[in-house]
Amino acid sequence: MAEPVRPSRSGVGSRPVGGSFSFLELNDRSCPANLQVIVEGTKLRVELRVENVHHVGPVDPTKYLLPKTRLTLEFLRDIVHFRPRTNIISRHSFLYIHTPIVITSDCEGVGEMFQVTTLIGDAEKVEKELIKNPPPSEADIEAAKALVKEKGEAIAQLKSVKAAKAEIAASVAKLNKAKENLSRLEERYKLNPGIPKKDGKIHYSQDIFARQAFLTISGQLQVETYACAVCSVYTFRPTF
């Protein structure tokens, strides 16, 4: 006969009620998985028979950090010490942590040695493209704008004299083509060689991660938050 379970540091994750019984999601923080507890009588399979339930108190859903909704990574970044309780891999009594290889934190002040960026490659591509196909001049842009205006006025004239639909449709197609050409010219006109900068500093919003990113030189930074949440953890993830 199984011994009674007396979990320590336990918490109730949810409590949906149905009919004459209730389901409790019990977790004593020894592992990520919850245990379903069925309170009161039921014909369903019992995973754990309850001898006594001590109600400590309710949880205010407006203040609890982990609501019962789909949690995005962006949301969990603000409460990183709770993230391990949402999804983690268990192994024996320790939890193996997949620490990230690419991070946005400059660990120990030497992360810049291993920066991850696409800005250099993109700048080289733009430079080669501009050498092969020089960008349009301001005169080219103004000529394209004038052509778009001309095509638009031609359509207005056709509509005013109630021209045939086929004739108007042909003019609309020419206008759309002129607009597409103008859009391409304006896009190429904005191309600038070199790494993009703003206020004298590199503009990382155009980088692959939209911010500075580095190959991590420390797995400890991420593992510490998991240790605070679930205690026994380890990792063999690479650092640089």
Describe the secondary structure blueprint for this structure.
Blueprint: E1 11-12, E2 17-18, E3 21-27, E4 35-39, H1 73-77, E5 90-91, E6 94-96, E7 102-103, H2 119-132, H3 138-160, H4 165-189, E8 197-198, E9 201-202, E10 214-215, H5 220-230, E11 233-234
Parallel strand pairs: 6-11
Antiparallel strand pairs: 1-3, 2-3, 3-4, 5-6, 7-10, 8-9
Helix pairs in contact: 3-4
Features:
240 residues, alpha+beta, single chain, 5 helices, four-stranded antiparallel beta sheet, three-stranded mixed beta sheet
General description of the model:
It is built from 5 helices and 11 strands; from the N terminus they run ββββαβββαααβββαβ. The protein is of the alpha+beta class. The strands form 4 sheets. Strands 1, 2, 3 and 4 form a 4-stranded antiparallel β-sheet that branches. A 3-stranded mixed β-sheet has the order 5-6-11. A hairpin with a 2-residue loop joins strand 2 and strand 3. The longest helix is centred in the C-terminal third of the chain and has 25 residues, at 165-189.
Residues in β-strands, percent: 5-15%
Q: What level of helicity do the residues show?
A: 25-40%
Distance linking N and C termini: 52 Å
Strand pairing plus helix content: what structural class?
alpha+beta
Count up the helices: 5
Which spans have pLDDT < 50 for at least 5 consecutive residues?
Answer: 1-16, 88-92
Write down the secondary-structure element order. Answer: EEEEHEEEHHHEEEHE
Number of strands: 11
Please compute the radius of gyration using only Cα atoms. Answer: 31 Å
Average pLDDT, all residues: 76
User: How many strands, which pairing sense, and closed or not: the largest β-sheet?
Assistant: 4 strands, antiparallel
Oligomer: single chain
What overall form do the CA principal axes indicate?
Answer: elongated
